[in-house]
């Protein structure tokens, strides 16, 4: 009973004592996986930054399906960020390792489905317009679906020759494969010592800081676009919060 009151009860799920720095292959892989988690967080932060750039610099307001994809990007990012946060403490216990990559896998899988649904009209001639991503009820292209230039008439511009939805789908798919590859060796590398000073600490703290700033900015962007309304229009043309406050026409 005293253990329950003091919160000092030891359970099998408790974090084991951090061992000495392992110079063998498991330790090297563990540190490499920590760096990969930092890279994963930074990469998805960059993708979210690209979306904000298209929104505010290029005037490409995201459709509801794009906002859903951003939500899953944030979920994937937070999963890896949990691993980075634990790594800054010196080691990543197995439960935290699996929980972090599990959240990331859920976010990438669900985001891949959302992005794939948006990308289908571009990739499959004869497909129908999805619920988001089109400016009107007409099919993509000039006149009939697939009858015009690739991506012509679509909601938003092409990025390096591909629609943003296709890029998002590719990023989600690549992340799923990367997470699977990392989990293959997780049983060998969990709870291994990770340096808490020097480049490891700088990289982890920088990744978490940038992620926090971009997540905050994305939240503000969605709030500006939706205001106090529960749903976004299919083809948003204004920032609803500013319109409701009489600050824009």
TrEMBL record:
<feature type="transmembrane region" description="Helical">
    <location>
        <begin position="67"/>
        <end position="85"/>
    </location>
</feature>
<protein>
    <submittedName>
        <fullName>Disulfide bond formation protein B</fullName>
    </submittedName>
</protein>
<dbReference type="InterPro" id="IPR023380">
    <property type="entry name" value="DsbB-like_sf"/>
</dbReference>
<keyword id="KW-1133">Transmembrane helix</keyword>
<feature type="transmembrane region" description="Helical">
    <location>
        <begin position="34"/>
        <end position="55"/>
    </location>
</feature>
<dbReference type="InterPro" id="IPR003752">
    <property type="entry name" value="DiS_bond_form_DsbB/BdbC"/>
</dbReference>
<keyword id="KW-0472">Membrane</keyword>
<feature type="transmembrane region" description="Helical">
    <location>
        <begin position="207"/>
        <end position="232"/>
    </location>
</feature>
<feature type="transmembrane region" description="Helical">
    <location>
        <begin position="166"/>
        <end position="186"/>
    </location>
</feature>
<feature type="transmembrane region" description="Helical">
    <location>
        <begin position="97"/>
        <end position="120"/>
    </location>
</feature>
<keyword id="KW-0812">Transmembrane</keyword>
<dbReference type="Pfam" id="PF02600">
    <property type="entry name" value="DsbB"/>
</dbReference>
């Amino acid at each position: 009973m005293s253990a329950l009151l003091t919160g000092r009860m030891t359970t099998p799920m408790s974090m084991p004592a951090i061992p000495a720095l392992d110079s063998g292959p498991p330790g090297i892989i563990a540190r490499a996986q920590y760096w990969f988690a930092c890279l994963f967080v930074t990469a998805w932060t960059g993708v979210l930054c690209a979306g904000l750039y298209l929104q505010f610099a290029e005037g490409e307001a995201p459709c509801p399906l794009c906002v859903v994809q951003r939500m899953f990007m944030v979920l994937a990012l937070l999963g890896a960020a949990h691993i980075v946060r634990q790594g800054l403490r010196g080691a990543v216990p197995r439960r935290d390792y699996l929980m972090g990559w599990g959240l990331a896998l859920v976010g990438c899988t669900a985001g891949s489905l959302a992005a794939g649904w948006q990308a289908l009209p571009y990739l499959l001639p004869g497909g129908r317009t999805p619920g988001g991503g089109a400016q009107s009820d007409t099919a993509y292209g000039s006149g009939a679906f697939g009858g015009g230039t690739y991506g012509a008439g679509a909601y938003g511009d092409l990025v390096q020759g591909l629609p943003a939805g296709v890029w998002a789908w590719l990023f989600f798919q690549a992340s799923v494969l990367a997470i699977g590859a990392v989990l293959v060796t997780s049983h060998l590398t969990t709870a291994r010592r990770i340096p808490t000073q020097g480049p490891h600490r700088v990289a982890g703290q920088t990744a978490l800081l940038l992620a926090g700033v971009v997540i905050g900015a994305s939240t503000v962007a969605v709030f500006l676009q939706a205001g106090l309304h529960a749903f976004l229009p299919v083809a948003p043309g204004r920032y609803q919060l500013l319109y409701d406050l009489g600050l824009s026409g």
